[in-house]
Amino acid sequence: MDKIVIAGGKPLKGEVMISGAKNAALPILAATLLTPGLHVLTNVPNLADIRTAKKLLANLGVQFTDLADGLQVDSTGLVSWEAPYDLVKTMRAAVLVLGPLVARLGKARVSLPGGCAIGARPINLHLKGLEEMGVRVALAHGYVEASVKRLEGAEIILDFPTVTGTENLLMAATLARGRTIIRNAAQEPEVSDLAKFLRAMGARIEGIGTDVLIIDGVRELQPASHRIMPDRIEAGTYLAAAAITRGEVTIRQAPVEHLTAVIDKFLETGLKLKVEKDTIHVRPGGALVGVDIKTMPYPGFPTDMQAQFMATMSLARGVSIITETIFEKRFMHVSELRRLGADIVVSGNQAVVRGTKTLQGAPVMATDLRASASLVLAGLGAQGQTEVHRVYHLDRGYERLEQKLSALGANIWREKA
Ligand code: EPZ
């Protein structure tokens, strides 16, 4: 297993280009299952999770061809309708094949995703919605076995605006008979990017970007082309990297319009930043002040930025109270940040961060994707050397992280652990 080593304390300087969004590319890859034919996807990020998704789809019969500027996806011949345990356990987003397989083939056998470092992460809302569309769902030997003659449109009210739950039901509804209304739908930009791809395939969807999605099913869809939207969480992570090192960084191809809650909070800390169309300029300024955040479904402050913001607050002046409302265990990074000298106390779903003057480099352990990002950020801001172990977590969601940070002047490299 690799480790990432950082010699911290150096302000970042220069420009960074944001890649395509992992959490848009994953549902859009799954959506290609809805119809036979050749799709072309561009701006697909080169990440471990994307490679896992391609392996899963290849097992189902999908064929991929790398083009000069994109990825050709041939979903003509499906030979299986099963998402096996070994793939789902490494990437729970594999459950996103459930809706498309049921819609295209009338059946699917998908391993129940286990829990993960940040929570139990059940899929009961996905299954409840599919049952309301007429799908027979059985749980057997750790697998969801779903079957239906023809999906029926339904009015679905989600108990919680689940992102992949909304995406699974949205994809299924495109080929259902009649109208489906999904209320309390997730409004994350990645859901909208999926909806735009589905519309390009001929789906009839209204309410994109709102919490009520109205889908009128069609008999069949056609393959389409789509450029994956930029990754707002990657952009927010580089914003935090500039902030924690008091650097001077220009973030290009940033989806500024999807980062308002994050940008507002960084402005509240005193971070000097200027926003243009799809560019964020961060300039060095005085010490940051502690600011409270509470993670919420979009358009609130994203849970996927909570760990990165906490790392930044550990070097701010004053106190920051961080409330995590989305996942029940998303403070796994706290004990590791404390090893670097951060003063953080957790009580229930709140973490109280008291800013310290410095952090000291130390060996730390990554536990999940965004926690490992927060440890890299803290290492950048710390004095001395930090080693982040189990960086396979990072590789799932960040494209060429150490190359992009090195290009910004960071002393960061990868070693065999
Ligand atoms: C998506 O996960 C993202 N993953 C996550 O990003 C992100 O943290 C999360 O949304 C919240 O924004 C992808 O898009 C691939 P949820 P998802 O269903 O869909 C509960 C990253 O770092 N819930 O919105 O799994 C659940 O337990 C990853 O890129 C149910 O109770 O999240 C959780 O508490 C991490 N029953 C809450 O809802 C269900 O059926 C949010 O879950 C579904 C969810």
Which oligomerization state do the chains in this entry correspond to?
Answer: single chain
Any idea what the CATH architecture of the largest domain is? Answer: Alpha-beta prism
**Count of the domains:** 2
Tell me which ligands are bound. ligand EPZ
CATH topology name of the largest domain: UDP-n-acetylglucosamine1-carboxyvinyl-transferase, Chain
* CATH superfamily grouping of the largest domain: Enolpyruvate transferase domain
Q: What is the number of helices?
A: 14
Give the CATH class of the largest domain.
Answer: Alpha Beta
How many strands, which pairing sense, and closed or not: the largest β-sheet? 4 strands, mixed
Strand-pairing-aware structural class: alpha/beta
| Helical amount | 25-40%
What percent of residues are in strands? 25-35%
Number of strands: 24
Distance between the termini: 6 Å
Weakly predicted, low-confidence segments: none
Radius of gyration over all CA atoms, rounded: 21 Å
Mean pLDDT: 96
